Amino acid sequence: MKKLTVVVGLIAAMGVAFAAPDEAKLRASMKQIGPVCSGLGKKLKAKDASGAADAKQLAGLFGDTQKYFKEAKADDGVAHSKTAIAEFKTTSKLIAAGKWDEADAGFKKATASCSGCHSKHREKASDGSWKVK
Asked: Which of 27, 64, 67, 80 is least crowded, fewest Cβ atoms below 10 Å from its Cβ?
Protein backbone atom coordinates (compact mmCIF):
# COMPACT_ATOMS: atom_id res chain seq x y z
CA MET A 1 0.00 0.00 0.00
CA LYS A 2 2.88 2.37 0.80
CA LYS A 3 4.39 1.76 -2.65
CA LEU A 4 1.08 2.55 -4.31
CA THR A 5 0.76 5.78 -2.32
CA VAL A 6 4.30 6.83 -3.26
CA VAL A 7 3.72 6.05 -6.95
CA VAL A 8 0.42 7.95 -7.01
CA GLY A 9 2.08 10.89 -5.24
CA LEU A 10 4.94 10.95 -7.76
CA ILE A 11 2.56 10.83 -10.70
CA ALA A 12 0.53 13.69 -9.24
CA ALA A 13 3.68 15.75 -8.62
CA MET A 14 4.83 15.17 -12.19
CA GLY A 15 1.44 16.29 -13.49
CA VAL A 16 1.69 19.52 -11.52
CA ALA A 17 5.26 20.10 -12.72
CA PHE A 18 4.29 19.63 -16.36
CA ALA A 19 1.16 21.77 -16.05
CA ALA A 20 2.91 24.76 -14.47
CA PRO A 21 3.12 27.79 -16.76
CA ASP A 22 6.60 28.65 -18.01
CA GLU A 23 7.33 32.00 -16.37
CA ALA A 24 10.85 32.09 -17.83
CA LYS A 25 9.41 32.01 -21.35
CA LEU A 26 6.95 34.78 -20.43
CA ARG A 27 9.81 36.91 -19.09
CA ALA A 28 11.90 36.27 -22.23
CA SER A 29 9.00 37.36 -24.43
CA MET A 30 8.36 40.47 -22.35
CA LYS A 31 12.02 41.47 -22.60
CA GLN A 32 11.65 41.38 -26.39
CA ILE A 33 8.22 43.00 -26.50
CA GLY A 34 9.30 46.22 -24.77
CA PRO A 35 12.00 47.33 -27.21
CA VAL A 36 10.15 46.12 -30.32
CA CYS A 37 6.99 47.92 -29.21
CA SER A 38 8.91 51.11 -28.49
CA GLY A 39 10.56 50.90 -31.90
CA LEU A 40 7.22 50.34 -33.57
CA GLY A 41 5.81 53.48 -31.98
CA LYS A 42 8.72 55.48 -33.39
CA LYS A 43 8.35 53.89 -36.81
CA LEU A 44 4.65 54.74 -36.88
CA LYS A 45 5.43 58.40 -36.16
CA ALA A 46 8.05 58.38 -38.92
CA LYS A 47 5.72 56.50 -41.30
CA ASP A 48 8.40 53.84 -41.70
CA ALA A 49 6.95 50.82 -43.50
CA SER A 50 9.44 48.47 -41.81
CA GLY A 51 7.18 48.77 -38.76
CA ALA A 52 4.90 46.17 -40.38
CA ALA A 53 7.47 43.48 -39.56
CA ASP A 54 7.71 44.74 -35.97
CA ALA A 55 3.94 44.57 -35.54
CA LYS A 56 3.93 41.05 -36.96
CA GLN A 57 6.74 40.05 -34.58
CA LEU A 58 4.77 41.47 -31.64
CA ALA A 59 1.72 39.43 -32.60
CA GLY A 60 3.89 36.32 -32.45
CA LEU A 61 5.43 37.24 -29.11
CA PHE A 62 1.99 37.77 -27.63
CA GLY A 63 1.23 34.18 -28.61
CA ASP A 64 3.70 33.24 -25.87
CA THR A 65 1.92 35.44 -23.34
CA GLN A 66 -1.42 33.96 -24.32
CA LYS A 67 -0.05 30.45 -23.79
CA TYR A 68 1.34 31.40 -20.37
CA PHE A 69 -1.93 32.89 -19.15
CA LYS A 70 -3.95 29.99 -20.56
CA GLU A 71 -1.77 27.55 -18.60
CA ALA A 72 -2.05 29.81 -15.53
CA LYS A 73 -5.84 29.78 -15.96
CA ALA A 74 -5.91 33.59 -16.01
CA ASP A 75 -8.74 34.33 -18.40
CA ASP A 76 -8.19 38.09 -18.32
CA GLY A 77 -4.53 37.61 -19.29
CA VAL A 78 -5.64 35.40 -22.19
CA ALA A 79 -8.12 38.08 -23.28
CA HIS A 80 -5.50 40.85 -23.11
CA SER A 81 -3.10 38.70 -25.12
CA LYS A 82 -5.74 37.93 -27.76
CA THR A 83 -6.50 41.63 -28.11
CA ALA A 84 -2.81 42.46 -28.51
CA ILE A 85 -2.37 39.70 -31.11
CA ALA A 86 -5.37 40.85 -33.14
CA GLU A 87 -4.44 44.53 -32.98
CA PHE A 88 -0.79 43.98 -33.86
CA LYS A 89 -1.78 41.77 -36.83
CA THR A 90 -4.17 44.47 -38.01
CA THR A 91 -1.55 47.17 -37.42
CA SER A 92 0.93 45.23 -39.55
CA LYS A 93 -1.54 45.03 -42.44
CA LEU A 94 -2.46 48.70 -42.13
CA ILE A 95 1.19 49.79 -42.16
CA ALA A 96 1.79 47.69 -45.28
CA ALA A 97 -1.20 49.43 -46.89
CA GLY A 98 0.12 52.86 -45.89
CA LYS A 99 -2.90 53.58 -43.67
CA TRP A 100 -0.93 55.37 -40.97
CA ASP A 101 -3.76 56.86 -38.90
CA GLU A 102 -5.57 53.54 -38.69
CA ALA A 103 -2.31 51.73 -37.91
CA ASP A 104 -1.61 54.18 -35.10
CA ALA A 105 -5.11 53.60 -33.68
CA GLY A 106 -4.53 49.82 -33.72
CA PHE A 107 -1.17 50.29 -32.03
CA LYS A 108 -2.83 52.33 -29.27
CA LYS A 109 -5.47 49.64 -28.72
CA ALA A 110 -2.77 46.98 -28.50
CA THR A 111 -0.67 48.93 -26.01
CA ALA A 112 -3.75 49.69 -23.91
CA SER A 113 -4.17 45.94 -23.62
CA CYS A 114 -0.58 45.76 -22.31
CA SER A 115 -1.38 48.28 -19.58
CA GLY A 116 -4.49 46.42 -18.48
CA CYS A 117 -2.63 43.15 -18.09
CA HIS A 118 0.39 44.69 -16.37
CA SER A 119 -1.80 46.40 -13.78
CA LYS A 120 -3.38 43.07 -12.88
CA HIS A 121 -0.52 40.57 -13.25
CA ARG A 122 2.69 42.42 -12.46
CA GLU A 123 4.02 43.85 -9.23
CA LYS A 124 7.22 45.58 -8.27
CA ALA A 125 9.46 43.69 -5.84
CA SER A 126 11.37 45.45 -3.07
CA ASP A 127 14.58 45.23 -5.12
CA GLY A 128 12.97 47.16 -7.99
CA SER A 129 12.50 44.14 -10.26
CA TRP A 130 9.09 42.98 -11.48
CA LYS A 131 7.38 39.73 -10.69
CA VAL A 132 4.33 38.00 -12.06
CA LYS A 133 1.43 37.80 -9.67
From this structure: 27
- The alpha carbon of residue 69 and the mean position of all alpha carbons in its chain are separated, in whole angstroms, by 9
**What does the pLDDT look like over 58-108, one tens digit per residue?**
999 999 999 999 999 999 999 999 999 999 999 999 999 999 999 999 999
Q: Give the tens place of pLDDT for each residue, 7-42.
A: 445 454 454 445 678 888 999 999 999 999 999 999
3-class DSSP state of 124: strand
Q: Distance (Å, rounded) from C-alpha 123 to C-alpha 112? A: 18
Domains of the chain: 22-132 (1.20.120)
- CA dist., res. 14 & res. 88, Å (int): 36
- For the stretch 34-37, contacts whose Cβ atoms lie closer than 8 Å and that sit 24 or more positions apart, written own/partner, are 36/61, 37/111, 37/114
pTM of the predicted model over 0.85: no
The answer to whether 53 touches 37, Cβ cutoff 8 Å, is no
